[in-house]
Amino acid sequence: MKKEIFINEKRPHESGIKHVSGRAYYTDDIPEPLETLYGAIGWSKKAHAIIKKINLDGVVKSAGVIAVVTGKDIVGRNDVGPVYDGDPIFPKKAEYYGQPLFAVAAKTTELARKAVLKAKISYKTLKPIITIQNALKKKSFVLKEKIIKKGEALKAIENSVNRLKGNFTTGSQEHFALEGQTAFVIPEEDNDFKVFSSTQHPSETQQIIAKMLNQKSNTITVETRRIGGGFGGKETQSFIFAAICTLLAKKTKHPVKLRMDRDDDIIITGKRHDFYSEYEVGFDELGVIKGLKLKLASRCGISPDLSEAINERALLHIDNAYYLENVLVENYLCKT
C-alpha cells in the first residue's frame, strides 16, 4: 500500500496549469449550439424613481433583436432574494441606479447591447437616500436593528480613568473577478433547462429559477464550470443574471448566453458593505478596556440580501481577541 505524505510538500492547484496556460474552460468558453442568441440588460438610469412608462418599440425594432422580456413575462416569483424578498428581477419602482428593468435577446452580443440603449423610459424622480448617516437620520433600514448588552458599559465608561470618543468608517469593496457575471442557458425537452452559471451557489440558483418559472426544481439543471473568482460576489449576485438568461431562453426557445460587459456588471451588482461606527470607550492606566459603547451601521443597499449574516459577523466578532466585561453595541442595517 502506497503511503502518501503531504506535510511540507508543495502541491500545485489541480487546475493551475490550465489557468496559467489559458486552456481552462470557463462559462463563456463552452461551445455554443447553432442558433445561440445573446442577451443584454436594460437598466435604470435613476437611483430612486417611479417608472411611469417604458417604451420598448425602438428596442424591438432594433437590428438583430429576437425577443424582449419584462416583468410581464415572469409567471412565478419575481425576486432573487436568497433569504428575504426585496431583490426583484424586474421592478415596478427603480430603487438603485443600474437596477435591471428589461432584457433582450439578439443575434450577437453587440446588437443586443446596442438595442437596450434605444429604450425610452419616463420616470418620476424621488429623492434617494445615499449615505449611512442619512439612512440613520431617516430611520431607513432593511431589517430591525440588533443590540448586544453585557454588563454596565455606560457606568464603566463614566468611572474609567481614561475615556475616548469618536467615529470612523471602513470602506466598501468591489468584487472584481477574473470572469465577470456570466450565464448560458440551453432549453431542453419537456420545458427543462440546462443552466451554466458562473456562481458560487448552483443549488440556490436552481431554486431561484424554478420559482421564477413556477416549475419543479428538478426541471432545472445548473452546472458551474469554473467561477473565475468569486470572493462572495457570486454567492447571490449571480442569481439575477442566470434568471434573466433563462427567461430569454424560455421565450425564444433558443440557447441564450448572457455575458455582462464589465461596466454593466459593476453597475448592476452590489458591493461589500461599508460601515460607519461611533464609539465611546473607557480604559485604565494600562490600556485595559473597562467599558465600550459602539454604534455599528452598514450600508446594505435596497434589500436584506445577505446583510443579516454580514452584520451578525461584524457584531459578534467585535471583541476580537479581547475580553470585554462591559459592552453595549447597537447594529443598524441601513437601506440606501
Q: Let me know the largest β-sheet.
A: 7 strands, mixed
Helix content: 10-25%
Number of domains: 2
Strand order of the largest sheet: 3-5-1-12-9-10-11
General shape: globular
Overall mean confidence score, pLDDT:
96
Question: What's the alpha carbon Rg, rounded to whole Å?
Answer: 24 Å
**Spans where pLDDT lies below 50 across 5 or more residues:** none
Task: Give the strand content.
Answer: 25-35%
The total count of helices amounts to: 9
Tell me which CATH architecture of the largest domain applies here. Answer: 2-Layer Sandwich
Q: What is the CATH topology classification name of the largest domain? A: Aldehyde Oxidoreductase, domain 4
Q: Which CATH C-level class of the largest domain is it?
A: Alpha Beta
User: In the CATH hierarchy, what is the superfamily of the largest domain?
Assistant: Aldehyde oxidase/xanthine dehydrogenase, molybdopterin binding domain
* Total number of strands: 15
- N-to-C CA distance: 61 Å
Following the backbone from N to C, one meets helices and strands in this order, namely: HEEHEEEHEHEHEEEHEHEHEEHE
**Helix and strand composition category:** alpha+beta
Protein name: Aldehyde oxidase/xanthine dehydrogenase a/b hammerhead domain-containing protein
Keywords: Molybdenum, Oxidoreductase
InterPro entries: Ald_Oxase/Xan_DH_a/b, Ald_Oxase/Xan_DH_a/b_sf, Ald_Oxase/xanthine_DH-like, AldOxase/xan_DH_MoCoBD1, AldOxase/xan_DH_Mopterin-bd_sf
Organism: marine metagenome
